[in-house]
Each structure stands twice: as structure tokens, then as C-alpha cells.
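Data card: per-record layout.
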Amino acid sequence: MDPKELIKAGKLVEARENLVGEVKTSPGDTGKRTLLFQILALLGEWDKALRHLDMIGSQDPARAIHVQTCKNLILAEKERSEVCSLKQLPSFLPETPPYLDTYYEALKNIRSENSEKAARLFSSIQRPVVSGTVNDKPFEGICDTDTFVHAFIEAFVHERYVWIPFEYIRELNVSEPKNLFDLIWIQAGITTWEGLSLNCYLPVLYPETFLHEDDQVRLGRLTKWTPLAGSFFKGHGQHVYQAGEEDISILEIRNITCRLK
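The structure for this 261-residue chain is written out next.
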């Protein structure tokens, strides 16, 4: 099978090996190198992905803007890794929520398997109830099903990784996925209640999905949850949100409009 067929079959490692060989044979083929970059991104090989982007940029200067966009996404992914390992505090837009200290302390307690204290901390957080519509269907209450980013949308703004609290979002529009790139990072537009309008990318996959052993998960075709301490869970695969009583994956979302109670 060729690399695209291997990807379709969910064989990422084989596709990577195949593409490495093809790029060595045809180093000037930017199409093959671009596909290899995307596979490396799915496998979390950020530094190698950056090196191939440098090669694409030098071989095809007309793609400079897209190459820089991809470099920014990789830099944001590296920052995301630091945040998700609790080595760095997240950045926020439009502003840091008042409950950050409590939320972050709860995350640290989950990491140290002190689930009872984490639960007490989470329950003490006062957040507005967000209602609205997702794809024109009403909901009351929205959150991520992953404990770590439960209260936030993850977004990449240029080269920065940011959390955007759901209660700060007035409207979210998500592009329809059309290719492999869009299954890793999807373009979106966010409008906040303060009137801030953002064109950004949303990471389709949960943090550290590349560490999962199932290629169907690493490709975002499946989402699996790993139990953490107590009743908390870590997601791998495609982001899934709970809107009201229903779950919806990130790539199913076209539009969310919100109201605050």
C-alpha cells in the first residue's frame, strides 16, 4: 500500500516508514514531505516536523505563509505539552478566569491521586451556566468531557496555546474538515462577550493522543477515556464535548452560540 492507503487503513507507523523512504528517494517532492510532516505531527515528533517544514519552505518559497502557519502550530503544540504536564501555567483569552488558582490546584491533586480534595476544589468553583445552541440544537450547560480542560476550549492563536473559558464565548464557528491537516488542527472563529474576534486553530486531538497505542485513536477516529483518580478521566483521540445531555465531537460542530444565565 502507498502512504495514503496506509493512513486510510490506520497504519501510521507503516505510513511514516514508507514516507521516510520516499522522501529520501525524492527529496525535492514537497507533496510527500508535507504528508510526512503531518504524520510526524500525529505521532508527536515535533522537532522532526519542524525540520521538514524548514525544507519545504526552502524548496517552495511560494508556500512561505502556510509553512509559517504550520511552524506556529507546532510551537503551540510544544507549549501545550508543557502546560499539560503542569510545568507551565496556561495562557488565557480574553482574560484569566477568577477561579484559575482553584482549578489548577485541583489538577495538581488529580496528578497526585488525591481525588477527594480535587473533587472538593472543583465543586467550590463558581462558574456561570452556559446555554445556547450547537448546530442550531438547544443545550443548557457545556463542557469538555476531559477533566483537564473541562471548562475550556483549547485554541492555538499564532504560535501560542491558550485556554478560552466557555463562559467567555459568545459564538464559535468551526470549519468543515476537508483533508488530513484538518483532522489535526481545524480552523475556527471565536467571538467573546467583550467583542474580541479571533481567527484561530483548534487542536482536534486531546493532549498526548500520540502516546496512545491505537492508531484509530491517534487519527481521531475514536475517542477513549482513561480513568484517573476518583471519577476523573483523561481523553485520547478526538475532543468530545457534552452539550446538555448529549455528546458531540469537535469535528461535528459547525456553530455554537451561547447565552449566560
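Known properties of this structure: The chain has two domains: 3-84, 91-260. The chain has eight helices and 14 strands.

See the next section for split statistics.
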